[in-house]
Design brief:
Blueprint (H helix, E strand, L loop, with lengths): L17 H12 L8 H9 L6 H8 L7 H16 L2 E9 L26 H12 L5 E5 L9 H12 L4 E5 L5 H10 L1 E5 L7 H7 L8 H5 L1 H6 L5 E5 L7 H18 L4 E5 L19 H14 L4 E4 L5 H11 L2 E3 L26 H10 L3 E3 L5 H7 L1
Parallel strand pairs: 1-2, 1-8, 1-9, 2-3, 3-4, 4-5, 5-6, 6-7, 7-8
Helix pairs in contact: 1-11, 3-11, 3-12, 4-12, 6-7, 12-13
Bound molecules: iron/sulfur cluster (SF4).
Iron/sulfur cluster binds next to loops.
Length: 388
């Protein structure tokens, strides 16, 4: 099993996260069992305790499902205390689905015969215009990882192009170098989403059999490189269902705690997506997550990381999203397509099936009707850039 060593560094890259790599490796080498104590679990919830590995293990334990109502009340209270009634609303903006990686859980993997597309400059403008006409001012730009076709320059020029349309542009693409993140910040990038997918090195190697994404350490250090380059907001996450959920989420929490302490001025959030069906593949979910367990997981993170944002994607259906938003969610997507160019003229296959197809209008109406303030314009990166 590959371990973290300084020789893993790519040429010229600073070595940023040795202590994180060591903590994650130590987590997998440790005995993660914890003796369940209901009194202790109740006390964690009632006395507003925050994250520790033991606190998380107790709230994620199957026995703690008996405390789900208590957890829900506390999670709702913390959501309101830290975030009020505001819910940020954004739309994913797929600009290319070419990919040279082989992630087993993703329809964009290189050996999957799907319709592929990369937006031209005109198509990019048209797509941006169509998305912005829904009222959305915050987008998450997504690509596959095909660096010879979807080059860094293409990515940079795309962000520069749409920066004039949106107030906040985040991206979910392959891990970049520190200098590249800095260059994108200069043309309008203000947020990065980078999921480790699974923190277990063995499962990671199986799920990413070829392509640059098979470099676990390079990916794990991506948020450090972005934080060191001026990216304002970071979202990390794990795709649950690939490994035992407690082991996976224990590692995610270690990563989150590390980033929060090391970069206190960076806005941190997490997402915990469940695996979804994909085109041309019978996806095998080794560790299925039930709806009840999913709710328990979300509540545990809201209670123990009260200041951290939680994003709930359209991988969850309308019923789940409506039920979970009041209990801890701070950011949601709406008007979603996981195909390239679908906001104007559908031209590619989708990355995965979405489960909540509500438009931006429908989602905002539901939020208002349920006492929330939909926030479509939360941050204007242009103002902070011009102020520097
Ligand atoms: S998850 Fe990303 S890198 Fe992996 S196959 Fe899909 S698009 Fe490519």
């Amino acid at each position: 099993m590959p371990k973290s060593t300084p020789t893993d560094r790519r040429a010229g890259e600073p070595y940023l996260a040795q202590s994180l790599l060591e903590r994650i490796d130590a987590w997998y080498a440790s005995d993660q069992s914890v003796a369940y104590d209901e009194h202790r679990a109740r006390s964690i919830i009632e006395s507003n305790q925050i994250y520790s590995p033991e606190n998380l293990a107790l709230l994620l334990a199957p026995e703690s499902y008996a405390l789900i109502e208590l957890m829900a009340v506390k999670a709702k209270e913390k959501r309101e205390l830290f975030f009020g009634n505001a819910i940020k609303v954004f739309t994913p903006f797929y600009i290319s689905n070419f990919c040279s990686n082989g992630c087993l859980y993703c329809a964009f993997k290189a050996d999957n015969k799907i319709v592929r597309k990369q937006l031209t400059k005109d198509e990019l403008r048209a797509e941006a215009s169509a998305i912005s006409s829904t009222g959305i001012r915050q987008v998450l730009v997504l690509t596959g990882e095909a660096k010879r076709l979807t080059t860094f320059e293409y990515l940079r020029d795309s962000i520069r192009e749409i920066d004039s349309v949106f107030s906040s542009v985040a991206m979910e693409v392959w891990p970049l170098t520190k200098d590249q993140y800095g260059e994108l910040v200069n043309v309008g990038l203000d947020g990065l989403t980078l999921y480790q997918e699974t923190y277990c090195r063995d499962i990671y190697a199986v799920q990413h059999p070829y392509g640059d994404k098979s470099d676990y350490n390079w990916r794990l250090e991506g948020p450090d490189r972005a934080c060191s380059s001026g990216v304002r907001a970071i979202q990390i996450g794990a795709l649950i269902g690939l490994d035992d959920y407690r082991r996976e989420l224990g590692a995610l929490a270690i990563h989150l705690d590390y980033l929060c302490k090391k970069y206190p001025d960076v806005e941190m959030s997490i997402s915990i997506p469940r695996l979804r069906p994909i085109v041309n593949s019978d996806l095998i979910v080794d560790h299925p997550i039930t709806d009840k367990l999913y709710a328990q997981i979300l509540l545990a993170f809201r209670i123990l990381f009260p200041h951290v944002g939680i994003t709930l994607s359209t991988r969850e259906d309308m019923r789940m999203r409506n039920g979970l938003i009041p209990l801890g969610v701070t950011k949601i997507s709406a008007g979603v397509s996981t195909a390239v160019g679908e906001h104007t003229d559908k031209a590619s296959d989708e990355q995965f099936d979405i489960a909540d197809e509500r438009s931006v209008d429908e989602m905002c109406t539901w939020l208002v009707d349920n006492g929330f303030q939909p926030v479509l314009h939360d941050w204007n990166s242009k103002l902070t850039r011009s102020a520097v």
